[in-house]
UniProtKB/TrEMBL annotation, chain A:
The gene is KCNIP4. The lineage of its organism: Eukaryota, Metazoa, Chordata, Craniata, Vertebrata. Keywords: Calcium, Cell membrane, Cytoplasm, Ion channel, Ion transport, Membrane, Metal-binding, Peroxisome, Phosphoprotein, Potassium, Potassium channel, Potassium transport, Repeat, Transport, Voltage-gated channel. Pfam families: EF-hand_7 (PF13499), EF-hand_8 (PF13833). GO terms for molecular function: calcium ion binding; potassium channel activity; potassium channel regulator activity. It is found in: Cell membrane; Cytoplasm; Peroxisome. This is Kv channel-interacting protein 4. GO terms for cellular component: peroxisome; voltage-gated potassium channel complex. One of its GO terms (biological process) is regulation of potassium ion transmembrane transport. SUPFAM superfamilies: EF-hand. The keyword Ribonucleoprotein does not apply. It is a peripheral membrane protein.
TrEMBL record, chain B:
The lineage of its organism: Eukaryota, Metazoa, Chordata, Craniata, Vertebrata. SUPFAM superfamilies: POZ domain, Voltage-gated potassium channels. GO terms for biological process: action potential; protein homooligomerization. It is found in: Membrane. The chain crosses the membrane at residues 224-244, 256-274, 323-344, 356-372, 384-405. GO terms for cellular component: dendritic spine; neuronal cell body; postsynaptic membrane; voltage-gated potassium channel complex. It comes from the Eukaryota. This is A-type voltage-gated potassium channel KCND1. Residues 1-24 form the signal peptide. Component of heteromultimeric potassium channels. Identified in potassium channel complexes containing KCND1, KCND2, KCND3, KCNIP1, KCNIP2, KCNIP3, KCNIP4, DPP6 and DPP10. Residues 40-139 form the BTB domain.
Length: 215, 594
């Protein structure tokens, strides 16, 4: 009887050790993530050394482990939009930044995305925006995808708006968007239609340059 | 917002590029960025301990010593650092506050030393983080109490201020018997007479031997009726005088009359006076006897003399619901067992259980484990039921009692803690309201970001109060004739425009001035003269700045906002600002012409 108990407890210990070691590994791997060196990042992005330092300090402050997972990302982004619900848009943003689709945004992903957004050419920025809207990354923006994005944006406004956001406001906005962008009226917007149309629109061109000196 | 998140603002702004292709309105322009971009280390020397931090870190809180120009007073040229002759251990916590946004209170530090440092560096203690706030406040309160006690014991040796009125002196004497010898004497005298009166009531009923011409034994009360009557009179006179004196001295007579002690006093002396008034009429003498029962209430007058009695009274009052539950569960059990017992014993001969109410007595006696034995079950079933009854009685009575005790302890401590926390929260909120000054540059950029979102969606942020008032007005104004001339906009829109005209803060309301002459076609119609609109989150100040820094096409930047809120004109091609505004101003005009 005693022997049985001993064997049983030993087995439990082993199992626990195994799961512990798996957990430890995960934790260690999370803790161990360090970004590539400054020189490599300088080469990959259009930021200079000082700017990279500033960016990393801010990044590391919120995410001491070195990577952002989707929940933390949503948390951080939501703090900028206290009146509404920014989690859906943050989800799309997260997917746009997580270029290697591994479920976490490392500092390299973060800084490369920012490099495009802040220092890239208009073509690159528009490319990035198209990538954001194209949820399934098939090269076409359908009305459903656009509707999802639009609803996410309107969600960020919250409910205390003037005038009130009605249920079909996002849909109407999507219709407007498609009227403008979908030149051949085939129900989807391709990258070329998108880039063409944006380049012909003065307002969009002007607003793309808006955040260039943000860092 | 946490100070750390401010570092992510550039990211949030960059991500805003994702809205640009979708937006149907031009984005607002950037705020002027006159930040000096000083990114440098600051060396701080506190009594020899060197600390270093970024300049930006310190400038997060511009209303403290380190974050403002006040630190320049401590700049030491020879060593190119800022020197403070203060405690380095406590300074560590202060510097951490700048770094993390949370102020912690180290438990091993003296509370007054800590307070001094906080005051020196210009930090309000109310922003201490939740983890340390309770501890801080407790220590502070203890310290205050200690100081207060010291002062009190000093005061006690002093003379009472002589300018108290006689009434106040008397009240003070009644409430605090230790203040003067007269009060003490009065205290003991009343206590003595309460005891005497109660003893007399008790002894009155003791049998005292027989009278010579009677067979039956008489009680002492009847034998020495006159003596007892005199004693009673004396006691009641003293109580009456005491009551009247208290009534006279009370600062608020109505409150005094309402208080429990006063009620007890009245009930204690009433029977005597009623007895005086009533004659020896046979009919009422029965009632008179009942009244004498109330004399026992005099014993409650002791609660003025005993704090323990008062605490007991408070306990019972606060556990009233538990006691009620105890009573209720007991009643349920009694009824159940009495019924079962009755039917079980129905068969046996000469059973004492004549009815269910008669069985109540048995059940109560059994459940409280008294077991007088005047009623005993005879059948086997009855005996079984009886034993179950006694077992369950033990449980039913034993269970709520610890609950009441623990309830009392919990309620007592909880009320103490709840009051503590309530008081702390009030002062904490007040303190935090003063302190919450984030980096002003951060605010500017954050507001610009929110403004961009507004332009993307063509809707504006509204603060909760304005939102709710406008909702209320929509329902009110719905009856007005506003809606009738609304041709182009849905009723909701137009009405909110109406209400907007009336209730929006700082709109230069209802009267119609012409906006500068660039809308000639509508000169004869009235229009809404919109000046700068003040939103609760102070974005309007920025818009005022916009007017200076960037020349927009229209003089009143917010007119575009007002215009865009009308849903029907598809705002896809806003190149022609003039015609755009014209068209929509016409709409506005139609609204306001009602």
């Amino acid at each position: 009887m005693g022997a049985l108990m001993v064997i049983f407890s030993l087995q439990k210990d082993q199992r626990r050790k195994r799961t512990d070691s798996v957990e430890d590994e995960l934790e260690l791997s999370a803790v161990r993530h360090r970004p590539e060196g400054l020189e490599q990042l300088e080469a990959l992005t259009r930021f200079n050394r000082k700017e990279l330092q500033i960016l990393y300090r801010g990044f590391k402050n919120e995410c001491p482990s070195g990577v952002v997972n989707e929940d933390t990302f949503k948390d951080i982004y939501s703090q900028f939009f206290p009146q509404g619900d920014a989690s859906k848009y943050a989800h799309f943003l997260f997917n746009a930044f997580d270029t290697n689709k591994d479920g976490s945004v490392s500092f390299e992903d973060f800084v490369m995305g920012l490099s495009i957004l802040l220092r890239g050419s208009v073509q690159e920025k528009l490319n990035w925006a198209f990538n954001l809207y194209d949820i399934n990354k098939d090269g076409y923006i359908t009305k459903e995808e656009m509707l999802d994005i639009m609803k996410a944006i309107y969600d960020m406004m919250g409910k205390c708006t003037y005038p009130l956001v009605k249920d079909d406001t996002p849909r109407q906005h999507v219709e407007l968007f498609f009227q403008k962008m979908d030149k051949n009226k085939d129900g989807v917007v391709t990258i070329d239609e998108f880039i063409d149309c944006c380049q012909n629109d003065e307002n969009i061109m002007r607003s793309m340059q808006l955040f260039e000196n943000v860092i | 917002m946490a100070a750390g998140v401010a570092a992510w603002l550039p990211f949030a702004r960059a991500a805003a590029i994702g809205w640009m292709p979708v937006a149907s309105a031009p984005m607002p322009t950037l705020p002027a960025d006159n930040r000096q971009k000083q990114e440098g280390l600051i060396a701080i020397n506190v009594s020899g301990h060197k600390f270093q931090t970024w300049r930006n870190t310190l400038e997060r809180y511009p209303d403290t010593l380190l974050g403002s120009t006040e630190r320049e007073f401590f700049y030491h040229e020879e060593t190119n650092e800022y020197f403070f002759d203060r405690d380095p251990d406590i300074f560590r916590h202060i510097l951490n506050f700048y770094r993390t946004g949370k102020l912690h209170y180290p438990r091993q530090e003296c509370i007054s030393a800590y307070d001094e440092e906080l005051a020196f560096f210009g930090i309000i203690p109310e922003i201490i983080g939740d983890c340390c706030y309770e501890e801080y406040k407790d220590r502070r309160r203890e310290n205050q109490e200690r100081i207060q006690d010291d002062e009190d014991s000093e005061n006690q040796n002093e003379m009472v201020p002589p300018d108290m009125t006689f009434r106040e002196t008397m009240w003070r004497a009644f409430e605090n018997p230790h203040t003067s010898t007269m009060a003490l004497v009065f205290y003991y005298v009343t206590g003595f007479f309460i005891a005497v009166s109660v003893m007399a009531n008790v002894v009155e009923t003791v049998p005292c031997g027989t009278l010579p011409n009677r067979v039956k034994e008489v009680s002492c009360g009847e034998r020495y009726a006159l003596a007892f009557f005199c004693l009673d009179t004396a006691c009641v006179m003293i109580f009456t005088v005491e009551y009247l004196l208290r009534l006279m001295a009370a600062p608020s007579r109505w409150n005094f009359i309402k208080s429990v002690m006063s009620v007890i006093d009245v009930v204690a002396i009433m029977p005597y006076y009623i007895g005086l008034v009533m004659t020896d009429n046979e009919d009422v003498s029965g009632a008179f006897v009942t009244l004498r029962v109330f004399r026992v209430f005099r014993i409650f007058k002791f609660s003025r003399h005993s704090a323990g009695l008062r605490i007991l009274g408070y306990t019972l009052k606060s556990c009233a619901s538990e006691l009620g539950f105890l009573l209720f569960s007991l009643t349920m059990a009694i009824i159940i067992f009495a019924t079962v017992m009755f039917y079980a014993e129905k068969g046996s001969t000469a059973s004492k259980f004549t009815s269910i109410p008669a069985a109540f007595w048995y059940t109560i006696v059994t459940m409280t484990t008294l077991g007088y034995g005047d009623m005993v079950p005879k059948t086997i079933v009855g005996k079984i039921v009886g034993s179950v009854c006694s077992l369950s009685g033990v449980l039913v009575i034993a269970l709520p009692v610890p609950v009441i005790v623990s309830n009392f302890s919990r309620i007592y401590h909880q009320s103490q803690r709840a009051e503590k926390r309530r008081a702390q929260k009030a002062s904490k909120a007040a303190g935090q309201a003063l302190v919450c000054k984030a980096n002003p540059m951060f605010d500017t950029h954050h507001n610009h970001l929110l403004h961009c979102l507004e332009k993307t969606t063509n809707h504006e942020f509204v603060d909760e109060q304005a939102f709710e008032t406008s909702l209320l007005e929509v329902s009110m104004v719905k009856q007005a004739s506003c809606s009738s001339s609304m041709s182009s906009s849905s009723s909701n829109q137009g009405l909110s425009c109406c209400s907007r005209r009336n209730k929006r803060k700082n709109f230069n309301v209802p009267n119609c001035n012409m906006t500068g002459g660039h809308r000639n076609s509508i000169q004869e119609l009235s229009t809404i003269h919109i000046r700068e609109r003040h939103i609760a989150n102070s974005r309007s100040n920025l818009n005022a700045k916009f007017e200076e820094t960037v020349p927009l096409n229209c003089e009143h930047p917010y007119i575009t906002a007002a215009v865009i809120t009308l849903p029907t004109p598809p705002v896809t091609t806003p190149e022609e600002d003039a015609s755009f505004l014209d068209y929509s101003q016409a709409n506005i005009v139609r609204v306001s012409a009602l």
